[in-house]
Design goal:
By secondary structure, this protein is of the alpha+beta class. It has a single domain, classed as Porin, CATH 2.40.160.20. The chain has 2 helices and 13 strands, in the order αββαβββββββββββ. The strands form 3 sheets. An 8-stranded antiparallel β-barrel has the order 3-4-5-8-9-11-12-13. A two-stranded antiparallel sheet has the order 1-2. A hairpin with a 2-residue loop joins strand 11 and strand 12. About 3% of the residues have low confidence.
Length: 274
């Protein structure tokens, strides 16, 4: 991928992000102009200060608390880290390690951060839909295998004479998650939350980092490319969250590699909910 292409994506992403921030600020500011109630919080207590008005309206303390809590819960951040595995076919067909791409199964990982900007309540407080924007990083550790691009394929050759310091194949994605969240046991355990998420993944850029020592001299070789990954694919995830900590499992739902059409990935790990 060329530098011009990368800079174009960076410009578009930050332009979209700044626009969303400005839009959110305008909405919150305009709402505040017509709100005659000030909410103050101290530790576990909440105080409401009501301004004097000529117009008398019916007011409920519980409704005001619920409205303020809804505003707080409309914005969430999820930070996830997990272990990455490659499968020879879709995970729902059979579990079989993908062997055509050599990688270290115990040192490959994923990292994602998602900002949920809008939420919709469906009939009840225990079922909601969240829409967001995020970033994903998929890291494959290639061990002692040197990656080369030839024509329309990826080629690997194993080296034993050098000391490999770092050898990763990274892909970065801009994501648009659609999250369905519900509380399965609202009466017994309202802090237990289950979520199903569909993630639209747009390839931002790919990069390989290969660093090694030879005769006590450090060498580095980096390749910027998409490595024949598709520009867009869809993944799905299942999350089980208790209070602020959760566990998740995620796998692709559509093909994401043109070089290996049958290859799929899946990851599992922990999620921090803020």
């Amino acid at each position: 991928m060329s530098t011009k292409y990368i800079l174009y994506f960076i410009h578009k992403f930050f332009k979209l992000f700044i626009s969303l921030l400005i839009f959110t600020f305008i909405i919150n500011f305009s709402t505040a102009q017509f709100n005659d109630t000030l909410s103050l919080k101290y530790k576990n207590s909440q105080f409401l200060v009501i301004s004097k008005s000529d117009e008398v309206k019916e007011w409920s303390f519980e409704d005001e608390l619920e409205e303020n809590q809804t505003k707080i819960n409309s914005f969430k951040i999820h930070i996830s880290m997990g272990i990455l595995q490659l499968n020879n076919s879709y995970l729902f067909n059979k579990l079989e390690n993908f062997k055509h791409l050599p990688y270290n199964r115990f040192n490959s990982s994923t990292f994602s951060i998602k900002f949920y900007l809008k939420s919709f309540k469906i009939n009840t407080d225990y079922l909601k839909i969240f829409l967001g924007l995020g970033l994903d990083k998929i890291k494959l550790n290639l061990g002692n295998n040197i990656l080369e691009i030839r024509d329309d394929s990826l080629n690997f050759s194993r080296v034993n004479s050098t000391e490999v310091v770092k050898n990763n194949l990274n892909h970065h994605y801009i994501t648009l998650p659609i999250n369905v969240s519900w509380v399965p046991l609202p009466n017994k355990n309202p802090n237990l939350i289950t979520q199903i998420e569909i993630v639209n993944q747009f390839l931002w850029y790919g990069k390989s980092n290969f660093r090694y020592l030879e005769n006590r001299v450090k060498y580095s070789r980096n390749i910027n490319s998409d490595f024949f990954n598709r520009k867009y694919y869809v993944s799905g995830s299942l999350k089980l969250i208790y209070k602020k900590i959760g566990a998740y499992f995620q796998s692709n739902l559509s093909p994401y590699s043109n070089a290996y059409p049958t290859m799929s990935n899946y990851c599992y790990g922990l999620t921090l909910c803020l």
